[in-house]
Design a protein that fits this description.
heterodimer; A: 192 residues; alpha+beta; 5-stranded antiparallel beta sheet; 7 strands; 27% helix; 19% strand; B: 256 residues; T-fold; 8-stranded antiparallel beta sheet; two-stranded antiparallel ribbon; 6 helices; 12 strands; signal (chain A)
Chain lengths: 192, 256
Amino acid sequence: MRRALLAITGLAASTTALVVFKGSPGTSQVAQNLPTAQPVNPTPQDVEPSADPSGVAPKPSVTADAPTSPKPTKSTARPSGTRTTTKAAPRTTTKAPQSTTRRVTGNGFDNEYGYVQVQIVVSGNRIVEAVALSLPSGGESDIHSGDVRDSYDGRGGEVVQKQNANLNTVSGATETSNSYKQSLRSAIEQAF
Amino acid sequence: MRATLTRPGLCRVEQIMGTAITLDLADDLPPATLRELADDVFAWMREVDARFSTYKPDSEVCRFDRGEVLLSEASADLRYVLETCADLWGATDGFFDAYATGRLDPSGFVKGWAAQVASDRLVAAGAVNHCVNAGGDVRVRGLSPSGEPWRIGIRHPWDAMAACLVLSGTDLAVATSGVYERGRHVLDPRRGAPASGLRSVTVVGTDLGLADAYATAALAMGTPGLNWLARLDDHTHAVITDNARQYHSVDLPLTD
Protein backbone atom coordinates (compact mmCIF):
# COMPACT_ATOMS: atom_id res chain seq x y z
CA MET A 1 0.00 0.00 0.00
CA ARG A 2 2.72 2.34 0.98
CA ARG A 3 4.75 1.34 -2.01
CA ALA A 4 2.02 1.92 -4.52
CA LEU A 5 1.37 5.26 -2.96
CA LEU A 6 5.04 6.13 -3.14
CA ALA A 7 5.23 5.14 -6.74
CA ILE A 8 2.34 7.31 -7.75
CA THR A 9 3.36 10.08 -5.44
CA GLY A 10 6.65 9.93 -7.26
CA LEU A 11 4.89 10.61 -10.51
CA ALA A 12 3.11 13.48 -8.93
CA ALA A 13 6.25 14.82 -7.35
CA SER A 14 8.19 14.60 -10.56
CA THR A 15 5.45 16.47 -12.32
CA THR A 16 5.63 18.99 -9.53
CA ALA A 17 9.34 19.30 -10.02
CA LEU A 18 8.78 19.66 -13.71
CA VAL A 19 6.23 22.38 -13.33
CA VAL A 20 8.34 24.20 -10.78
CA PHE A 21 11.35 23.92 -13.00
CA LYS A 22 9.40 25.04 -16.02
CA GLY A 23 8.04 27.95 -14.14
CA SER A 24 11.34 29.28 -12.99
CA PRO A 25 12.55 32.43 -14.66
CA GLY A 26 14.87 32.31 -17.58
CA THR A 27 14.54 28.65 -18.44
CA SER A 28 13.72 27.37 -21.84
CA GLN A 29 11.29 29.22 -23.88
CA VAL A 30 8.73 26.48 -24.02
CA ALA A 31 8.58 26.65 -20.30
CA GLN A 32 7.89 30.31 -20.28
CA ASN A 33 5.03 29.98 -22.65
CA LEU A 34 3.36 27.48 -20.43
CA PRO A 35 0.48 29.61 -19.34
CA THR A 36 -0.30 30.68 -22.85
CA ALA A 37 -0.90 27.14 -24.00
CA GLN A 38 2.30 25.99 -25.65
CA PRO A 39 3.75 23.24 -23.57
CA VAL A 40 2.15 20.83 -21.20
CA ASN A 41 -0.36 20.02 -23.81
CA PRO A 42 -0.61 21.70 -27.14
CA THR A 43 -2.76 18.85 -28.38
CA PRO A 44 -6.36 19.20 -27.43
CA GLN A 45 -7.22 16.25 -29.60
CA ASP A 46 -5.38 13.88 -27.40
CA VAL A 47 -8.15 13.99 -24.88
CA GLU A 48 -9.56 10.58 -25.47
CA PRO A 49 -13.10 10.86 -26.71
CA SER A 50 -13.89 8.04 -24.32
CA ALA A 51 -12.71 10.02 -21.31
CA ASP A 52 -15.73 9.72 -19.14
CA PRO A 53 -16.68 12.96 -17.49
CA SER A 54 -19.04 11.10 -15.22
CA GLY A 55 -16.03 10.16 -13.13
CA VAL A 56 -15.82 13.79 -12.14
CA ALA A 57 -16.56 14.19 -8.53
CA PRO A 58 -16.08 17.42 -6.63
CA LYS A 59 -16.67 20.62 -8.46
CA PRO A 60 -13.58 22.52 -9.40
CA SER A 61 -12.82 25.34 -7.11
CA VAL A 62 -10.64 28.39 -7.19
CA THR A 63 -9.47 29.79 -3.93
CA ALA A 64 -7.44 32.87 -3.34
CA ASP A 65 -4.58 32.37 -1.00
CA ALA A 66 -2.60 34.72 1.13
CA PRO A 67 -0.31 36.77 -1.09
CA THR A 68 2.95 35.16 -2.14
CA SER A 69 4.37 32.30 -0.09
CA PRO A 70 2.15 29.36 -0.93
CA LYS A 71 2.25 26.87 1.88
CA PRO A 72 3.16 23.30 1.09
CA THR A 73 -0.17 21.70 0.46
CA LYS A 74 -1.03 18.62 2.34
CA SER A 75 -3.27 15.74 2.08
CA THR A 76 -6.53 14.90 0.52
CA ALA A 77 -10.09 14.09 1.14
CA ARG A 78 -11.01 11.09 -0.85
CA PRO A 79 -14.72 10.64 -0.35
CA SER A 80 -14.28 7.07 0.84
CA GLY A 81 -12.10 8.32 3.64
CA THR A 82 -8.69 7.18 2.47
CA ARG A 83 -6.24 9.78 3.55
CA THR A 84 -3.23 10.58 1.48
CA THR A 85 -0.39 12.88 2.25
CA THR A 86 1.56 14.38 -0.54
CA LYS A 87 4.97 15.78 0.03
CA ALA A 88 5.61 18.93 -1.88
CA ALA A 89 8.85 19.01 -3.79
CA PRO A 90 11.36 21.53 -2.50
CA ARG A 91 10.54 24.79 -4.10
CA THR A 92 13.31 26.93 -5.38
CA THR A 93 11.53 29.84 -6.96
CA THR A 94 8.45 31.11 -5.27
CA LYS A 95 9.33 34.74 -5.04
CA ALA A 96 6.96 36.63 -7.23
CA PRO A 97 6.60 40.05 -5.64
CA GLN A 98 3.45 41.91 -6.69
CA SER A 99 1.56 38.84 -7.81
CA THR A 100 -1.09 37.11 -5.83
CA THR A 101 -1.08 33.42 -5.37
CA ARG A 102 -4.07 31.37 -6.29
CA ARG A 103 -4.85 27.74 -5.81
CA VAL A 104 -6.87 26.08 -8.49
CA THR A 105 -8.22 22.60 -8.06
CA GLY A 106 -8.77 20.41 -11.09
CA ASN A 107 -11.67 18.08 -11.57
CA GLY A 108 -11.25 14.66 -10.04
CA PHE A 109 -10.96 11.63 -12.28
CA ASP A 110 -11.43 7.97 -11.58
CA ASN A 111 -9.28 5.42 -13.24
CA GLU A 112 -8.95 1.71 -12.72
CA TYR A 113 -6.50 2.28 -9.88
CA GLY A 114 -8.43 4.88 -7.99
CA TYR A 115 -9.21 8.54 -7.81
CA VAL A 116 -6.89 11.34 -8.89
CA GLN A 117 -7.20 15.04 -8.26
CA VAL A 118 -4.61 17.74 -8.82
CA GLN A 119 -4.31 21.27 -7.51
CA ILE A 120 -2.04 23.91 -8.96
CA VAL A 121 -0.65 27.00 -7.29
CA VAL A 122 -0.53 29.96 -9.62
CA SER A 123 1.50 33.06 -8.98
CA GLY A 124 0.78 35.78 -11.48
CA ASN A 125 0.57 33.89 -14.74
CA ARG A 126 2.94 31.21 -13.63
CA ILE A 127 2.33 27.79 -12.20
CA VAL A 128 4.62 27.44 -9.22
CA GLU A 129 3.40 24.15 -7.91
CA ALA A 130 1.25 21.17 -8.76
CA VAL A 131 0.03 19.00 -5.94
CA ALA A 132 -1.86 15.75 -6.10
CA LEU A 133 -4.74 16.08 -3.66
CA SER A 134 -5.69 12.50 -4.18
CA LEU A 135 -3.88 9.55 -5.66
CA PRO A 136 -4.80 5.88 -5.78
CA SER A 137 -3.40 3.53 -3.25
CA GLY A 138 -3.57 -0.18 -2.85
CA GLY A 139 -3.68 -2.52 -5.79
CA GLU A 140 -1.59 -5.41 -6.80
CA SER A 141 1.80 -3.86 -6.31
CA ASP A 142 1.04 -3.89 -2.58
CA ILE A 143 0.78 -7.59 -2.46
CA HIS A 144 4.20 -7.94 -3.91
CA SER A 145 5.90 -5.34 -1.81
CA GLY A 146 4.74 -7.42 1.17
CA ASP A 147 6.42 -10.49 -0.28
CA VAL A 148 9.52 -8.48 -0.84
CA ARG A 149 9.81 -7.21 2.69
CA ASP A 150 9.56 -10.78 3.89
CA SER A 151 12.39 -11.88 1.68
CA TYR A 152 14.89 -9.10 2.32
CA ASP A 153 17.34 -11.66 3.62
CA GLY A 154 20.41 -11.43 1.45
CA ARG A 155 20.32 -14.49 -0.79
CA GLY A 156 21.08 -14.39 -4.48
CA GLY A 157 22.12 -11.14 -6.09
CA GLU A 158 22.94 -8.00 -4.22
CA VAL A 159 20.09 -6.11 -2.63
CA VAL A 160 18.84 -3.34 -4.84
CA GLN A 161 20.37 0.00 -3.90
CA LYS A 162 19.26 3.58 -4.21
CA GLN A 163 21.26 6.18 -6.04
CA ASN A 164 20.46 9.81 -6.23
CA ALA A 165 22.99 10.92 -8.75
CA ASN A 166 22.50 13.77 -11.16
CA LEU A 167 20.45 12.39 -13.99
CA ASN A 168 19.40 13.63 -17.39
CA THR A 169 16.54 11.19 -17.66
CA VAL A 170 15.07 8.07 -16.12
CA SER A 171 14.08 4.77 -17.65
CA GLY A 172 11.16 3.07 -15.96
CA ALA A 173 7.93 1.24 -16.58
CA THR A 174 5.31 3.33 -18.28
CA GLU A 175 3.50 5.61 -15.93
CA THR A 176 -0.25 5.67 -15.92
CA SER A 177 -0.65 9.36 -15.95
CA ASN A 178 -3.91 9.88 -17.78
CA SER A 179 -6.05 10.81 -14.82
CA TYR A 180 -3.31 13.00 -13.40
CA LYS A 181 -3.03 14.70 -16.74
CA GLN A 182 -6.76 15.28 -17.04
CA SER A 183 -7.02 16.75 -13.60
CA LEU A 184 -3.92 18.89 -14.10
CA ARG A 185 -5.28 20.13 -17.38
CA SER A 186 -8.63 21.07 -15.95
CA ALA A 187 -6.85 23.04 -13.22
CA ILE A 188 -4.76 24.86 -15.81
CA GLU A 189 -7.79 25.60 -17.94
CA GLN A 190 -9.55 27.15 -15.01
CA ALA A 191 -6.51 29.14 -13.98
CA PHE A 192 -5.80 30.83 -17.30
CA MET B 1 16.63 17.49 -14.92
CA ARG B 2 18.06 20.67 -13.54
CA ALA B 3 19.25 22.96 -16.25
CA THR B 4 21.34 26.03 -16.04
CA LEU B 5 20.00 29.25 -17.44
CA THR B 6 22.42 29.15 -20.31
CA ARG B 7 22.00 25.61 -21.52
CA PRO B 8 21.61 25.30 -25.25
CA GLY B 9 18.74 23.51 -26.90
CA LEU B 10 15.18 22.91 -25.85
CA CYS B 11 13.25 20.59 -23.56
CA ARG B 12 9.57 19.84 -24.13
CA VAL B 13 7.11 17.44 -22.56
CA GLU B 14 3.79 16.32 -23.99
CA GLN B 15 1.25 13.76 -22.95
CA ILE B 16 0.80 11.25 -25.73
CA MET B 17 0.03 7.51 -25.72
CA GLY B 18 -1.31 7.91 -22.22
CA THR B 19 2.09 8.83 -20.89
CA ALA B 20 4.64 11.63 -20.83
CA ILE B 21 6.94 12.01 -23.81
CA THR B 22 9.98 14.14 -23.08
CA LEU B 23 12.23 15.50 -25.76
CA ASP B 24 15.53 17.09 -24.81
CA LEU B 25 17.37 18.66 -27.70
CA ALA B 26 20.91 19.57 -26.67
CA ASP B 27 22.17 21.03 -29.92
CA ASP B 28 22.87 24.72 -29.94
CA LEU B 29 20.60 25.48 -32.90
CA PRO B 30 18.48 28.56 -33.57
CA PRO B 31 15.29 28.55 -31.47
CA ALA B 32 13.06 28.40 -34.54
CA THR B 33 14.89 25.31 -35.79
CA LEU B 34 14.65 23.64 -32.40
CA ARG B 35 10.93 24.35 -32.22
CA GLU B 36 10.39 22.92 -35.66
CA LEU B 37 12.34 19.78 -34.80
CA ALA B 38 10.32 19.36 -31.62
CA ASP B 39 7.06 19.96 -33.48
CA ASP B 40 7.98 17.22 -35.94
CA VAL B 41 8.85 14.76 -33.18
CA PHE B 42 5.57 15.29 -31.33
CA ALA B 43 3.52 15.28 -34.53
CA TRP B 44 5.04 11.88 -35.31
CA MET B 45 4.33 10.52 -31.84
CA ARG B 46 0.71 11.68 -32.09
CA GLU B 47 0.40 10.11 -35.52
CA VAL B 48 1.69 6.80 -34.14
CA ASP B 49 -0.75 7.06 -31.24
CA ALA B 50 -3.68 7.70 -33.60
CA ARG B 51 -2.77 4.72 -35.76
CA PHE B 52 -1.50 2.20 -33.24
CA SER B 53 -3.48 2.88 -30.08
CA THR B 54 -5.48 -0.10 -28.87
CA TYR B 55 -7.67 2.35 -26.93
CA LYS B 56 -8.92 4.14 -30.04
CA PRO B 57 -11.50 2.04 -31.86
CA ASP B 58 -10.80 3.85 -35.12
CA SER B 59 -7.03 3.31 -35.02
CA GLU B 60 -5.56 1.31 -37.84
CA VAL B 61 -4.50 -1.39 -35.38
CA CYS B 62 -8.07 -1.82 -34.09
CA ARG B 63 -9.56 -1.77 -37.57
CA PHE B 64 -7.02 -4.36 -38.69
CA ASP B 65 -7.78 -6.48 -35.64
CA ARG B 66 -11.50 -6.40 -36.48
CA GLY B 67 -10.76 -7.45 -40.04
CA GLU B 68 -11.81 -4.12 -41.51
CA VAL B 69 -8.37 -3.55 -43.00
CA LEU B 70 -6.58 -6.29 -44.92
CA LEU B 71 -2.85 -6.76 -44.56
CA SER B 72 -2.46 -5.77 -48.20
CA GLU B 73 -4.27 -2.51 -47.50
CA ALA B 74 -2.39 -1.71 -44.31
CA SER B 75 0.08 1.17 -44.13
CA ALA B 76 3.76 0.42 -44.56
CA ASP B 77 4.27 1.22 -40.87
CA LEU B 78 1.62 -1.25 -39.72
CA ARG B 79 3.01 -3.96 -41.94
CA TYR B 80 6.49 -3.27 -40.61
CA VAL B 81 5.24 -3.43 -37.02
CA LEU B 82 3.32 -6.69 -37.65
CA GLU B 83 6.32 -8.29 -39.33
CA THR B 84 8.66 -7.23 -36.56
CA CYS B 85 6.27 -8.49 -33.89
CA ALA B 86 6.16 -11.85 -35.69
CA ASP B 87 9.98 -11.95 -35.75
CA LEU B 88 10.10 -11.00 -32.09
CA TRP B 89 7.67 -13.79 -31.24
CA GLY B 90 10.20 -16.22 -32.69
CA ALA B 91 13.24 -14.52 -31.18
CA THR B 92 11.72 -14.58 -27.69
CA ASP B 93 10.49 -18.18 -27.67
CA GLY B 94 6.95 -16.87 -27.93
CA PHE B 95 7.20 -14.65 -24.86
CA PHE B 96 6.82 -11.45 -26.80
CA ASP B 97 3.32 -12.02 -28.08
CA ALA B 98 1.37 -9.17 -29.65
CA TYR B 99 -1.72 -11.38 -29.22
CA ALA B 100 -1.08 -12.31 -25.56
CA THR B 101 -4.29 -10.62 -24.48
CA GLY B 102 -6.37 -12.36 -27.13
CA ARG B 103 -6.43 -9.38 -29.45
CA LEU B 104 -3.78 -7.54 -31.39
CA ASP B 105 -1.76 -5.29 -29.09
CA PRO B 106 1.70 -4.40 -30.43
CA SER B 107 2.19 -1.70 -27.74
CA GLY B 108 5.18 -3.54 -26.27
CA PHE B 109 7.05 -2.72 -29.44
CA VAL B 110 5.34 0.38 -30.79
CA LYS B 111 6.25 2.96 -28.16
CA GLY B 112 9.97 2.17 -28.29
CA TRP B 113 9.92 1.92 -32.06
CA ALA B 114 8.17 5.29 -32.40
CA ALA B 115 10.77 6.96 -30.18
CA GLN B 116 13.55 5.25 -32.10
CA VAL B 117 12.18 6.55 -35.40
CA ALA B 118 11.89 10.04 -33.91
CA SER B 119 15.51 9.87 -32.77
CA ASP B 120 16.68 8.59 -36.17
CA ARG B 121 14.90 11.46 -37.85
CA LEU B 122 16.53 13.97 -35.53
CA VAL B 123 19.95 12.61 -36.40
CA ALA B 124 19.11 12.83 -40.10
CA ALA B 125 18.04 16.44 -39.56
CA GLY B 126 21.37 17.27 -37.94
CA ALA B 127 20.25 17.27 -34.28
CA VAL B 128 22.73 14.65 -33.18
CA ASN B 129 22.67 15.45 -29.46
CA HIS B 130 19.33 14.57 -27.95
CA CYS B 131 17.32 12.42 -25.59
CA VAL B 132 13.86 11.07 -26.33
CA ASN B 133 12.03 9.57 -23.34
CA ALA B 134 8.73 7.91 -24.23
CA GLY B 135 7.11 6.90 -20.97
CA GLY B 136 10.34 5.50 -19.55
CA ASP B 137 11.79 4.13 -22.78
CA VAL B 138 14.85 6.22 -23.50
CA ARG B 139 16.92 6.86 -26.62
CA VAL B 140 19.97 9.08 -26.14
CA ARG B 141 22.43 10.28 -28.71
CA GLY B 142 25.53 12.43 -28.54
CA LEU B 143 26.02 14.60 -25.50
CA SER B 144 23.69 16.13 -22.94
CA PRO B 145 23.29 19.92 -22.60
CA SER B 146 26.18 19.94 -20.14
CA GLY B 147 28.49 18.54 -22.82
CA GLU B 148 28.87 15.22 -21.01
CA PRO B 149 27.50 11.85 -22.06
CA TRP B 150 23.85 11.42 -21.09
CA ARG B 151 23.18 10.01 -17.65
CA ILE B 152 20.20 7.69 -17.52
CA GLY B 153 18.82 6.44 -14.24
CA ILE B 154 17.00 3.14 -13.98
CA ARG B 155 14.05 3.74 -11.74
CA HIS B 156 14.10 2.05 -8.37
CA PRO B 157 11.11 -0.30 -8.42
CA TRP B 158 10.04 0.57 -4.88
CA ASP B 159 10.93 4.23 -4.80
CA ALA B 160 9.74 6.37 -7.67
CA MET B 161 12.03 9.19 -6.59
CA ALA B 162 15.21 7.14 -6.67
CA ALA B 163 17.30 5.42 -9.28
CA CYS B 164 18.85 2.04 -8.53
CA LEU B 165 21.45 2.10 -11.29
CA VAL B 166 22.88 4.87 -13.40
CA LEU B 167 23.94 4.35 -17.01
CA SER B 168 25.95 6.69 -19.15
CA GLY B 169 26.47 6.82 -22.88
CA THR B 170 26.34 8.65 -26.17
CA ASP B 171 24.37 6.13 -28.20
CA LEU B 172 22.03 4.05 -26.07
CA ALA B 173 18.51 2.67 -26.26
CA VAL B 174 17.32 1.90 -22.74
CA ALA B 175 13.94 0.23 -22.23
CA THR B 176 12.47 -0.81 -18.91
CA SER B 177 9.50 -3.05 -18.32
CA GLY B 178 8.26 -3.34 -14.79
CA VAL B 179 5.29 -4.42 -12.79
CA TYR B 180 5.39 -1.53 -10.32
CA GLU B 181 3.44 1.02 -12.36
CA ARG B 182 0.53 -0.87 -13.80
CA GLY B 183 0.46 -3.93 -11.59
CA ARG B 184 0.92 -7.33 -13.14
CA HIS B 185 -0.07 -6.35 -16.65
CA VAL B 186 2.42 -8.48 -18.53
CA LEU B 187 0.98 -11.91 -19.24
CA ASP B 188 2.96 -15.06 -19.67
CA PRO B 189 1.47 -15.93 -23.07
CA ARG B 190 1.96 -19.65 -22.47
CA ARG B 191 -0.07 -19.77 -19.31
CA GLY B 192 -2.29 -16.74 -19.90
CA ALA B 193 -1.46 -15.71 -16.34
CA PRO B 194 0.53 -12.77 -15.04
CA ALA B 195 4.26 -13.33 -15.08
CA SER B 196 6.09 -13.47 -11.77
CA GLY B 197 9.54 -13.45 -10.29
CA LEU B 198 10.88 -10.28 -11.86
CA ARG B 199 9.97 -6.80 -10.77
CA SER B 200 11.77 -4.77 -13.39
CA VAL B 201 13.74 -5.61 -16.52
CA THR B 202 15.91 -3.08 -18.35
CA VAL B 203 17.41 -3.89 -21.73
CA VAL B 204 20.09 -1.71 -23.28
CA GLY B 205 20.93 -1.78 -26.97
CA THR B 206 20.80 0.57 -29.91
CA ASP B 207 17.25 -0.08 -31.19
CA LEU B 208 14.63 1.05 -28.71
CA GLY B 209 11.80 -0.97 -30.30
CA LEU B 210 13.75 -4.21 -29.88
CA ALA B 211 14.98 -3.26 -26.41
CA ASP B 212 11.40 -2.54 -25.37
CA ALA B 213 10.14 -5.86 -26.74
CA TYR B 214 12.99 -7.85 -25.18
CA ALA B 215 12.38 -6.22 -21.81
CA THR B 216 8.68 -7.07 -22.01
CA ALA B 217 9.47 -10.65 -23.05
CA ALA B 218 11.97 -11.21 -20.24
CA LEU B 219 9.50 -9.84 -17.71
CA ALA B 220 6.88 -12.27 -19.05
CA MET B 221 9.33 -15.17 -18.69
CA GLY B 222 9.72 -14.49 -15.01
CA THR B 223 12.86 -15.75 -13.29
CA PRO B 224 14.05 -17.84 -16.28
CA GLY B 225 14.17 -14.53 -18.17
CA LEU B 226 17.50 -13.81 -16.47
CA ASN B 227 19.25 -16.61 -18.28
CA TRP B 228 17.54 -15.73 -21.51
CA LEU B 229 18.79 -12.15 -21.23
CA ALA B 230 22.31 -13.35 -20.52
CA ARG B 231 22.26 -15.18 -23.87
CA LEU B 232 20.87 -12.23 -25.81
CA ASP B 233 23.44 -10.93 -28.31
CA ASP B 234 24.28 -7.24 -28.69
CA HIS B 235 22.26 -6.21 -25.65
CA THR B 236 22.98 -5.72 -21.98
CA HIS B 237 20.47 -5.87 -19.16
CA ALA B 238 19.65 -5.05 -15.58
CA VAL B 239 17.05 -7.04 -13.68
CA ILE B 240 15.46 -6.58 -10.29
CA THR B 241 13.65 -9.54 -8.87
CA ASP B 242 10.53 -9.59 -6.74
CA ASN B 243 12.73 -10.24 -3.73
CA ALA B 244 14.71 -7.06 -4.38
CA ARG B 245 17.91 -8.54 -5.75
CA GLN B 246 19.55 -6.91 -8.68
CA TYR B 247 21.38 -8.64 -11.50
CA HIS B 248 23.02 -7.06 -14.47
CA SER B 249 25.38 -7.78 -17.38
CA VAL B 250 29.04 -7.33 -16.65
CA ASP B 251 29.35 -4.91 -19.56
CA LEU B 252 26.31 -2.80 -18.70
CA PRO B 253 27.38 0.86 -19.27
CA LEU B 254 27.19 1.71 -15.56
CA THR B 255 28.50 4.89 -14.06
CA ASP B 256 28.59 6.36 -10.56
